[in-house]
Amino acid sequence: MNSSSRTNTATDTRSDNVWPPAHIANADIGSPQLSGSAKPVETGWDVIGGGVDIWEKADQFHFIYSDFSGDFDVAVRVESFTPAHLYSKCGLMIRESLHAESAHLMFVLFADNQPRNNNLGAYEMQFRTVAGDDCQAIYPIVRPPAPPEFPAAFPNSWLRVTRQGNCFTAFASTDGKKWKQYAEQVLTLAGTVKVGPALTSHNPLVLANAAFRDYTEFR
């Protein structure tokens, strides 16, 4: 696959006459203490999210999603991200179900490039292979003191995830045209999954905010 262009051409949500398209919904996952919301704006949403985290054995977050069957290619630009914690996360979520413990893969974007555990930079891929299991993560190869290979670049922090069979590939970009592959992971998820932007606070008592723009779906 050429990482600089999308190969699927069936559906581009930005071409729909009404935003958001009727097939896209949003919900809190895992009963966060503070409720989240998603306000539609042109080509995207202003999202507020609570929740403890998307990690370990179960998740709490706000999710914008639609059902995808088979291969797909999804991208979004994060225009701004106001965190409630160092580990507040937004990004693109691929999820088997709306249950808190669901198997999933998420291409994560943090609010800045501060060091986080094994991560130097703003991007990370994480996944839960089986419902109720612990999550795993794929961290950037570059380590301090080198500059991050995948830095935050608001208002132009782009994320993209493709599925080809059970192979999921994540890409980052600063212009939505030239894409740099972050990671590839083989993961046996259901043929039909729920896909879209996600946001978690990591502080159950404070809401995080993220502005998602230029959301596109190719199926």
Q: Can you walk through the features of this model?
A:
The protein has 219 residues and is an all-beta fold. It has one domain (25-141, 152-218): Jelly Rolls (Sandwich). It has strands at 25-29, 37-41, 44-49, 54-55, 58-59, 61-69, 72-82, 89-95, 104-109, 123-128, 136-138, 157-164, 167-173, 180-186, 192-200, 208-218. The strands form 3 sheets. The protein has a 7-stranded antiparallel sheet with strand order 1-6-15-8-9-10-11, with no helix packed on it. A 7-stranded antiparallel sheet has the order 2-3-16-7-12-13-14, with no helix packed on it. The protein starts with 24 loop residues before the first strand and ends with a strand.
